[in-house]
């Protein structure tokens, strides 16, 4: 795989993710002007809850499809995909029933309005098909298809969100309406695309069910751990300082996430290329590209830091400038997370998901402890410190496993 092809795909994925992420960034002036800090905080808690539920319903199916694409033929891949969707629907039904009977308890624990609680599993399910379509396009290296599908959903998301917030004055709920109506439309389109590509094989296959579960279940602790590391800070802030402080923290988080916008775009272009290079045992090219991307992430992170004042002035209402102190530490955590992507790919390819789950869950427990002690001692800035420390240790652990266990086995097998 040439560097030219990688560069082209990075640009296309970057444009796609840039436009997709442009909605939250364009929405920042709207949210910070038309919605209170408490409303922004509630939105953040809802999104956190959705991310926490996702591995239980989606079963990390998109990651399994991304790897299975390179290890099986189209017929077996379609069976894997279809049986995986069936499992997700069953998981959704179980979670929805649990939420129905436990609605009051969940409302009290999460501090989320009761009318939203039953919608949480539905919001998660609506992410399934659009995510699968994008991962199939990514595996096929059809970057332009990825771009068009993603941008179409993004335009609907922004248009409806602006309508519901600015014109119909639905407040923070208008943001949810815009986002998940867009997901619903993308789901309908996505089903049509998968049928057209002949990726739906309506055959119950016990072996594929087992394969999906063997890959996905060990990743549930990994996904939960990742969500805890990324999002548990909101719950601590809400409990100790209230939802208004969650709103300020979330704004800093979204500005720092510019780093993740870049690194995820790069990783989307790089991971299928890496898998192909590992299959061909082209280790010299792997080492060259990995080194280049490693230093690129560090340089981009430094650039985001230097431009932070300008970004705040352009995007954020001055009433939310209390978010500024949290930004540098969150950005540092995002840089470590970006570097982690480079090494986690090797573990995904090897299907050693239990190892990754162990690392992530251990990191999550550490993160919870750090959040608890640091927020009590230092206030909200403590959870920002916790994020940076956790991702640094997580990066080191993933690097050591990928370098000396996974990569070494692949190279000398």
Overview in brief:
With 413 residues, the chain is mainly α. The protein has helices at residues 3-34, 37-58, 61-68, 74-101, 103-110, 114-117, 119-125, 128-139, 143-167, 172-196, 206-216, 219-241, 243-256, 258-280, 283-306, 308-315, 327-350, 353-378, 381-412.
Tags for this model:
413 residues, 19 helices
Q: What do you see in this structure?
A:
With 413 residues, the chain is mostly helical. Helix content is 86%, strand content 0%. The chain contains 19 helices and no strands. Helix 3 (61-68) runs parallel beside helix 8 (128-139), helix 12 runs antiparallel to helix 19 and helix 14 (258-280) runs parallel beside helix 17. The chain is globular, with a radius of gyration of 21 Å. The two termini are 22 Å apart.
Major sheet: size, sense and barrel closure?
Answer: none
Q: Name the overall outline.
A: globular
Poorly predicted runs of 5 or more residues:
none
β-strand number: 0
Proportion of strand residues? under 5%
Distance between the termini: 22 Å
How many helices?
19
CA radius of gyration: 21 Å
Average pLDDT confidence is 82
Helix-strand pattern: HHHHHHHHHHHHHHHHHHH
Structural class: mainly alpha
- What level of helicity do the residues show? over 70%
Topology:
Blueprint: H1 3-34, H2 37-58, H3 61-68, H4 74-101, H5 103-110, H6 114-117, H7 119-125, H8 128-139, H9 143-167, H10 172-196, H11 206-216, H12 219-241, H13 243-256, H14 258-280, H15 283-306, H16 308-315, H17 327-350, H18 353-378, H19 381-412
Helix pairs in contact: 1-9, 1-14, 2-7, 2-10, 2-12, 2-13, 3-8, 4-11, 8-9, 8-10, 9-10, 12-13, 12-18, 12-19, 13-17, 14-15, 14-17, 15-17, 17-19, 18-19
